[in-house]
What we know:
Number of domains: 2
Bound molecules: xanthosine-5'-monophosphate
CATH architecture of the largest domain: 3-Layer(aba) Sandwich
Number of helices: 10
Amino acid sequence: MDSNKRPDTMERIVTPELAEAFIAEQVKEVRAQVGNKKVLLALSGGVDSSVVAALLIKAIGKQLVCVHVNHGLMRKGESEQVIEVFRNQLDANLIYIDATDRFLDKLAGVAEPEKKRKIIGGEFVRVFEEEARKLEGISFLAQGTIYPDILESDGVKAHHNVGGLPDDIHFEGLVEPVKLLYKDEVRVVGKALGLPAEMVDRQPFPGPGLGVRCLGAITRDRLHALREADAILREEFDNVGLNKTVWQYFIAVPDFKSVGVRDNKRYEGWPAIIRAVNTTDAMSATIEEIPYSVLHKITDRITAEVEGINRVLYDLTPKPIGTIEWE
Ligand code: XMP
């Protein structure tokens, strides 16, 4: 039987009970597969790798070594949440690497989007490999592959994967416990494993992170402004429940300034561009109608609270003709 093919008879995991049964079965399978050997996992904090981490912690505890690489392009509070949930709450064996300087130094002056993606993806693999080499006696590599990844591995979306994982380190095998599940099923399993809702219901976030939203050549001050503005947008969406109805929403900050006034003085700043889209497959997307009151509040807060931003714009472009990300 092709282990990468979802059997026609496999029931969709839509209830906590079905999730529990799936977890129990996977725990047994993982234990049988790895015995008392060690497993390595790149834990980004995204839904898939987080669910795999929680599942493997349940199955093999400290035999799992998680490596979280902070590339400096995470959203506000994300790396902190990974440490809090996995190290403090789930007592995982977690190695945290703050590689911010390394990534930002490599990206300095690079404005071309695909070049930025290549640098981020390539550097990610290098940092992860270096860490993996330092560790002794790791036999397996775990991955958060899900069923759509297998269905889409025809290369069409290859540029969407962050660089892949080390291919010059030899592992005895791969551990991919959720590879036959669809995204909604992964979320149900994550909840049954006790992961926090904000982690499990997280909106999609591109591998290169804020790197493709800090448009053009990334600078630390503009990246900081973007991260703060994005946090305000998310907070205000949470406050009015838009986080439950909008598929993806974020801020992009371009690399030009406009003239404004602050405290009766000329104040040049970047615009913050709001993007909020709905889609089923990310191939096409429509624009969500955001109430004016919410847009006003977000505008007031961002321009008052974020150093360097003096305007807020709302992007009304559907996909096509615009892509969801600006780069
Ligand atoms: P676009 O911009 O192509 O985005 O309309 C479609 C979906 O893919 C995400 N995206 C990425 N995800 N690496 C990723 O892992 C990337 O380089 C990347 N670029 C876009 C985007 O956020 C949206 O959900």
